[in-house]
Design a protein that fits this description.
single chain; 132 residues; 4 helices; 33% helix
Length: 132
């Protein structure tokens, strides 16, 4: 399936310096919706006298069965990045150790509380969650 306008349900872009991030909701032939996140970076492959710009693109596809896990992990990561939650990132082996589980659950509860306290302005991911 190609990228046609009829595949596109919703699109939002964020300009960040030489990068542009595209958040697209697309619909497959069978009617399922999915999210395509694209990072487009402008690169000069020419010289100062003869600039030649190209765009390097990286894509991430997110399917409906993974929305909740993706949003949860992203929200936790953002809270740690903002300094609002402890940096707890156990490996699979560590997570299976019963002594580590309460710390992870406590961090997750802390993140959920801080997410509930956010302002009324909805993030892009909240808007996408509302669509589905």
């Amino acid at each position: 399936m190609g990228d046609t306008e009829k595949d596109l349900v919703y699109s939002e872009s964020i300009k960040a310096g030489k990068r542009i991030y595209y958040f697209d909701v697309k619909q497959s032939r069978n009617g399922d919706r999915y999210i395509a996140i694209t990072e487009s970076k402008k690169i000069n492959e020419g010289t100062m006298d003869n600039p030649r710009f190209v765009f390097e693109k990286h894509k991430l596809f997110l399917y409906k069965e993974d929305y909740e896990k993706f949003v949860d992990a992203l929200m936790k990561t953002l809270e740690v990045a903002k300094g609002n939650a402890p940096a707890v990132s156990p490996t699979v082996e560590e997570a299976s150790v019963s002594a580590e589980i309460p710390a992870v659950e406590e961090a997750a509860a802390s993140v959920e509380e801080s997410v509930e306290e956010t302002t009324e302005k909805k993030s892009f991911l909240d808007k996408v969650k509302d669509i589905f």
